[in-house]
Amino acid sequence: MQYRRLGNSGLKVSELSLGSWLTYGGAVDSKQSELIIDKAYELGINLFDTANVYHRGEAEQVVGKALSKYPRESYILATKVCVPMGDGPNDRGLSRKHIKEQCDASLKRLGVDYIDLYQCHRYDTETPLEETLRALNDLITQGKVLYTGVSMWKAEQLLDGVHIGKALNLNRLVSNQPQYHMFRRGIEKDIVPLCKKEGIGQVVYSPLAQGILTGKYKPGMPFPLDSRAADPEQNGAIVHLMKEEQLTKVEQLRFIAERNELSLAQLALAWILRLDNVSSCIIGASRPEQVAENAKASGVKLSEFDLQEIENILNG
């Protein structure tokens, strides 16, 4: 496993990290989740990402319990705050009240004394950004949080956060968590250049496009029965990617993967890691074997010829 700095901070994170969205506390039982986390840890993955809202705290409990057997200094816990955790008017957002209360709740569920990376899960238009940034800074001062970041913020929102943080001499944001994969490249235009300039690293999620880029879905073929796409309760985030044109492109990418002795998933992950502003790719898994396969993408360097051919396929 290779490691990269999280933005311009001194923190080293594994090129591949393990996420818990849609899995722990829900589709994957606790025992299997622990086996997956153990495999990730064994392979050198040190960044484990979750959120308070994932199954209303259950994912945090599963992740915290599974990691509790390991030395605290050997892994990095990342969680998030903003998305509604209740029906009350203050059970959501990025107010000082909600941030403070949810940080304490996450610490309790995770069973730790501090959170390595605390992230704003969305942007809150109803709370002054200065209030949010001061609250995050206070958590760092109190030792409850070591680093802070954001998720799914627009470029202008990120820039505002950077400017306000500098003006108030606050601890700066070090990470951004966007969705990024071969079929969703919006961050390349504005967000990546801005973040490179300001020392903010990308910790990207959904790098395999909800499984599309693994090659398990074939053009003109029914969905595999054990796949997420075949489950009406889980396929909401994937159906829009199930276009014949995109599935055909995946099949074309298979030839590049095979000549490099890579799986399609490994190719897709290595393609993302071509960007030096990407600090880590968050992978999901329902079996330990998936973690082992994806972990092999760390350190893979694609040639300029391969990258250009991939570009031609994606733009074709």
Walk me through this protein's architecture.
The chain is of the alpha/beta class and 316 residues long. The protein has ten helices and ten strands. It has helices at 30-42, 58-67, 96-110, 129-141, 155-167, 191-198, 244-259, 264-272, 288-295, 304-315; strands at residues 3-5, 12-14, 16-19, 47-49, 76-81, 115-120, 145-151, 173-177, 201-204, 278-283. The strands form two sheets. Strands 3-4-5-6-7-8-9-10 form an eight-stranded parallel β-barrel, surrounded by five helices. Strands 1-2 form a two-stranded antiparallel ribbon. Helix 1 packs parallel to helix 9 (288-295) and helix 3 runs parallel beside helix 4. It is globular and about 50 Å long. The relative contact order is 0.14. The model has no long low-confidence stretch (mean pLDDT 93).
